[in-house]
Amino acid sequence: MKQANQDRGTLLLALVAGLSINGTFAALFSSIVPFLYSRLFPWC
Questions:
Q1: Where do the structural domains in the chain lie, given as residue ranges?
Q2: InterPro entries, alphabetically (predicted)?
């Protein structure tokens, strides 16, 4: 039973880490894209 709880904790930790990494990428992506867009398409 203890092993199952440990596995669940590891899974939860992996999920939280994955979400935080995903959020970081989303934030970087949303800050870089408008910059690139204005560089590539200045007339827009």
A1: 14-43
A2: DUF1422
